[in-house]
Structure formats: C-alpha cells, structure tokens
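Handout, tutorial session.
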Amino acid sequence: MAIHPQSTLPEGGKARRVYLLLRDDIANDRYSEGALLPGEHRLAERFDVSRVTIRRALDALADDGWIEKRTGAGSMVLPRDRADPQIAANFATLIPQLVEFDRRTTARLLSFSYGPAPTGVAAALGLSKDSKIQTAVRVRFSDDKPFSHLTTHVPEDIARNYDEADLATQPLFRLLERSGVRVESAHQSVTATLAAPDVADALGVSVGSALLSLRRVVKDADGRGVEHLSALYRPDLFRLEMSLTRVGADEARHWEPVIGPREE
C-alpha cells in the first residue's frame, strides 16, 4: 500500500506530535516493513501521553497508509512505494547541483507579480525602501511528485526582461543571464521550518510538517543583489549530504568538507 500524497494531521497538539515522530521513525526505517509497532500502553509511556492520544495518532498513520491496524495483533508497518528515490545534494557543491535539478525536473508557476520589496528582502538585496521587485512562486516536481516550493524576488529592472511564460518554462538563472546579469557570488543558509497551509497544500504534506529551508542571495560582478531565493524542500524526497576528509596532523587533525565531485 502506497503512502497517500496528501495527509492530514490528527486533532490535538499531543496527537500530532506523536504522529509526526512515529512517521519519522517509519520513514527512516527505525521500524522495518512488516514490523509491529509497540503496543498502545508502551507508546503512551514513551511519549508521556494518554492511550486516547496514541489511538488518534495511530488512526492518522493508518489513514495515510503508513501502518495497518490489526485487531488483536497491533499496528503493522506497511510496505512503502520506493519507486521514487530521494533526491540527494552535496552541501559543498549545492549550487551547481540545484542548477542541474532545474534541467531534469519540471516546475509549475503558482504566482507572478510586481510590488514593494519586503523589508528583509530589500535589506538582503541592498534595495531602497521604495524599490519594486518581481515575486514568483513555483513548485518543482520530480516524476510528478512535488518536492520543493520556491519563492524568488528579483529587482524590477532586471525582471522586466522576461515574462510569466518565460519563468514557467525556463530556469531563473538562464533568464538572469539572458537579461545581461553576470552572476559573481551567492550566500546561502540552510535551516528547518514547518509547512504553512499554502505550502503544505502545494507540496502535498500535512500542515505543520517539517521542511528543509534554504535561503540564497545572489549578487552580480558589481556586488549588486540580483536574486533572493527562499526554497522549501520535503525531507522525505530531498536530502543534503556532505563528504568529509580528515586533514592535518596530531592534535590539529580535523574534518574538512570535500569540495567538488566525490569519487566513487
């Protein structure tokens, strides 16, 4: 039985917490396919909640295709559809890999508009308070499954060189280059966040589900900010990796990231 593309969290904050933690355990193979989950009493003790709360969480897991509740036998972990492997990116070479994702995945444009730059975006791009930007929201798909939610902000004078149809069919970095922008540098950070209702709906996940959050500010050769990206990724379909190597000698020996493609 395959996991439903859209899931619904159970009612109650405690039941939602139990649901998400058990779902994470199953997704990360802490419980293998065909295994039985601990009984309600043991789960209630583990999470310090009532058995009613445990039942709500288990019911939601069953509804979403993670487990099958068997009368008198407990809750069995169901086989999962593994036809869609998780997309992996090396953190040390993330930019070129994300460019490659643009080439071999598809995107759907959800919105396209011009307006004042939000305060944080204006500061990151070095724009004045009255500056206007073009904002686009897209969802990127791999094998028809949504795995990333992308919000981009581009200064108006640059964005006027392409239109809504262009952005719906071409990667943004190509449109920037076509507009005469020579990208020189970028700064990015990665953290975690929770799925808001609109993002959850677009990505086919529960409201409040954990997402990887990547923010990137791109600058041209003159140091001008030309793009602000806020990208949200489903952790069940996308992961960040990093290859490390030991360098140095004696007490100064330490780990350093391997920059460039990893040899197999």
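The second record follows below. Compare its token runs with those of the first.
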Amino acid sequence: MYDIIIIGSGPAGLTAAIYASRARLRTLVLERDTMGAGQIAVTEQVDNYPGLLHIGGYELGEKFREHAESLGASICENDVERLTKQDGVFQIALADGTTVSAKSVIYAAGTSYRKLDVPGAELPGVSYCATCDGAFYQGKTVAVIGGGDTALGDALYLARMAKTVYLVHRRDAFRANAALQESVKQTENIVLVTNAVPTAVVGEKRVSVLQIDHSGQPEELTLDGVFVAIGSVPNTEPLRGLADLDAHGYVKAGEDGITSLDGLFAAGDVRTKLLRQVVTAAADGANCVASAEQYLLQNEKRW
C-alpha cells in the first residue's frame, strides 16, 4: 500500500511527486497519457514561470517530469476508472483491470477542453490544439473561438503561418491579459470579430464555413479550419459522490488542498481557485504534500 497516490502528472501532480519523494513517502503517480505532463505540453511558450523565460510548454513539462523521476518518483501510465475509500484506505480501480491502494490521494487530474456545442463541430478541421495542428494551415484562413489567454495566444501563434486569423469572441471585450491583447491588436492578419456567437460549422468532408450570429445578424466566415479555445471542464468524474464539488464540477478545496473527504487532497486546475496557472499548480502540489504528511502522521495508527 502506498502512502500517497497522485492522480495526474501535470505541474501540480509532478510537483507533489517531487515533494513526496523528498519526504521519503511511498508514492505512485498515475497518468492516463503516455509520457504526459498535462496541458502545458501543448502550450507553445510559457513566459510567466519564474526563472525560465521564453520556455516551451513541452520543454517545461519535461523538466518537471525529469526532476520527479530523478528523485525516484514512480509514474504509471494508466487511467483511473473508479475511486473508493473503505476502512481508511483508498482503492483505485485502473483501466487495465488492476487496483492500487493508498493511505492518501492527491487528485491533480486537471481539465479537458470544453467542446464547441454547435452542428458540425465534429467535422475534420475543428481543432482544440493550435500548436498540434497549426502547421497544417500554412497560408490558409482559420478562426479562433474564445476570448481568454489561450484563445489570444492561439491566434498569435496561428498568425505566424496562416494568411488570415479571425478571432471570434461572444463579447465586445477580451478576458485575456493586457500584453496579449496589445500583441493581437498589432498583428495585421488577425481580424477581430466581437459580439459574435458560432451557430454552426459547415462543410462537405471538412470545414469550409463558420456560421455566426454577429451582433444579432447571421454571417458566414469562409475558412479552412476552426480552433476552439472556450475554456475547460474539470476532470472530476471519479470524485462525484466522494468529495464536495462546486456548481461547475471543481473540487472544493483551499490552498492547503484539503477536501471534504479525509485523506483526499486536490491540486492544480481541478480545485476551486481564482488563478489557474503553472505557478499556482506547482504551489498546490507542494501544499498538498504538506497537508498529506500531517494527515498521515495524525492517522498512523489506523493502518
């Protein structure tokens, strides 16, 4: 039986693995993606992680993983199907049919892309990862849907290769940080389409038109691809019925990571918090291990 099982190997999970390894706790990290490092792996560039200016997201994720493994962290590539707790012990059923047990769990499974819910959204040419698929649109016309940091970052990335990038946002003002907004405004081939809501994606075998409601009027954008960046959904399905979640599905937990279920701690983007960034995820991972250590010490006679 493990002292701690960490579910998720993004910045929160890997930082937790680093701290748990240094604390000499018997720890296992569960990750569903091969050599995964969380969503940061598909981020083109990270400019706000202290001390590592202009580092690629994939490279930063690899550094987190290498650090954890260098300290002896054990990482298992498997998907969690069910999480239960009985007699003070957590049982985690995995996709391969095996079960692992632990005295405590740090849940750091992150979030998934929120899907575009309009007719035609499943057509080839609709993407949720600009850095993954952007290279296919050299000299072509694309649209980015969204108004946050990810959407504007995607638009800037795509503008370097696409002929035209429509940036479609449902409001008249963007949520992204001021630096990104200024860069977008200064990029000639990014066309702002505000007060616009997608209504359908149209095409024979792949995307050819994005239909929108633009300030109350129907409009069509002829293009080759659509990139969706409209937020995320927390990967907390295994916790339903176990721990308190908010109305959006995020785990209710403070900076100490403590949840409503004893021995379960939440770290990173899955927990209720104001700012979801790499630096706050890493802090969550460290705090959760500190909380888990206290829990293990207080309950050491239970096992």
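Points raised in discussion: The chain has six helices and 17 strands.
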